[in-house]
């Protein structure tokens, strides 16, 4: 019997089994086809030609074994291919193209061994072959995406750890700090402040917006999303005033903002974080004020000694706090305006849109309830401390 007759007598399964005997040569040929079809397949990635050959070999073996009927379909090779290509930076499109090239290679060799005689059985095998290619491609793509997602999460976690190197106290470990500075292109000496900001919008998106908005005015920054809001390290250019940064931040954050004192080296960031968080608490909850650490000595004292502050509020303003909520609020609002207007009754009346006599009546009412005389500097200071304690330290 001639060679042609022998091939004509072989079933598609037998042809596939025959191909399996040439698996090393087929794997080498597929490897070369992939490299030619994807010119940057190896050059632009970390994938070696040996790894590509192994992937081709294992996936050809799985598909041919299924077509030959010798083994059930094994998808481990497809999963491994997807995982490897994601780890080595091969584009997903190139991975899927490689599977199509593999399917074409198998079909071409099946036809060669059948001497071009496309029997009905062989045509049915074509459908089965491309179903296999589709299935393996889908499995490889799913493995690729899963691996890529895992790598992205790992990269994000590495970035977070690098960020926190600066915000946590790593002063004794200067090497780690310098590595973080280089990664974020921050100088080892400059004009720095730390900002603590409350957030109400999606945190990651807002931190990206903040970074871009500050960069637009020449301020480089690095941000970390923590449980109590955003923490930012700002590097101010030249002699730029902190007020410029605060003005930008005030347009982005609707909650309270705390700003540390200026410092000169990022290794001193950790204590500045504490300052910024304390400064944030120096504004009443629910407000949208920006507070600088060095400008709020009384509020700082109260938030650091909160229990003593609550006691002072009760001792000074206890009778006021015992009133019905509406009257209590009206008296405290008037007292707050009077202090903000530097003791000017007329200015407080203008701010509150009240008649001056209304302000005077409320101030007299506070005097009668507390026994504190507004003309007495000591009594006035006590009222101020008591009011700020009520505002900053809710019971």
**Which parts are unreliable, with pLDDT below 50 for 5 consecutive residues or more?**
1-8
The total count of helices amounts to 17
CATH class of the largest domain: Mainly Alpha
CATH topology grouping of the largest domain = Globin-like
Q: Give the strand order, joined by hyphens, for the main sheet.
A: 2-3-1-4-5
How many E strands? 5
Structural class based on helices, strands and sheet pairing:
alpha+beta
Shape: elongated
Which range does the strand content fall in?
A: 5-15%
Helix content bin? 55-70%
Calculate the terminal CA-CA distance, rounded to whole Å. Answer: 101 Å
Order of helices and strands: HHHHHHHHEHEEHEHEHHHHHH
Concise structural overview:
This protein is of the alpha+beta class. The chain contains 17 helices and five strands.
């Amino acid at each position: 019997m001639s060679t042609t007759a022998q091939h004509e007598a072989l079933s598609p399964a037998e042809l596939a089994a025959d191909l399996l005997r040439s698996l090393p040569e087929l794997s080498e040929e597929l490897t070369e086809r992939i490299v030619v079809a994807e010119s940057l397949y190896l050059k632009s990635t970390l994938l070696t030609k040996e790894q590509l050959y192994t992937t081709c070999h294992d996936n050809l073996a799985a598909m041919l074994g299924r077509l030959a009927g010798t083994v059930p379909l094994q998808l481990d090779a497809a999963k491994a291919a997807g995982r490897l290509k994601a780890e080595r930076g091969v584009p997903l499109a190139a991975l899927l193209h490689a599977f199509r090239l593999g399917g074409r290679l198998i079909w071409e060799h099946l036809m060669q061994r059948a001497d071009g005689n496309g029997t009905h059985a062989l045509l049915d095998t074509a459908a089965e072959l491309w179903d296999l290619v589709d299935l393996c491609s889908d499995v490889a793509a799913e493995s690729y995406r899963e691996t890529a997602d895992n790598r992205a999460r790992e990269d994000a976690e590495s970035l977070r750890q690098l960020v926190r190197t600066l915000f946590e106290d790593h002063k004794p470990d200067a090497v780690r700090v310098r590595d973080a500075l280089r990664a974020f292109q921050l100088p080892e000496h400059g004009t720095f402040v730390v900002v603590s900001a409350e957030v109400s919008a999606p945190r990651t998106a807002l931190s990206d917006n903040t970074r871009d908005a500050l960069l637009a005015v020449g301020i480089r920054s690095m941000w970390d999303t923590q449980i109590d809001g955003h923490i930012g390290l700002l590097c101010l250019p030249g002699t730029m005033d902190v007020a410029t940064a605060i003005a930008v931040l005030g347009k982005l954050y609707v909650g309270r903002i705390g700003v540390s004192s200026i410092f000169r080296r990022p290794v001193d960031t950790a204590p500045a974080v504490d300052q910024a968080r304390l400064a944030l608490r120096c504004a009443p909850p629910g407000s949208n004020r920006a507070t600088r650490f060095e400008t709020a000595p009384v509020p700082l004292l109260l938030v650091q000694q909160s229990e003593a502050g609550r006691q002072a509020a009760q001792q000074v303003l206890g009778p006021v706090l015992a009133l019905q909520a509406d009257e209590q609020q009206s008296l405290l609002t008037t007292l707050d305006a009077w202090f903000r207007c530097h003791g000017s009754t007329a200015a407080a009346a203008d701010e509150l849109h009240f008649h001056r006599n209304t302000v005077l009546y409320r101030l007299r009412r506070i005097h009668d309830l507390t026994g504190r005389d507004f003309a007495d500097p000591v009594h006035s200071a006590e009222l101020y401390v008591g009011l700020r304690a009520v505002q900053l330290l809710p019971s």
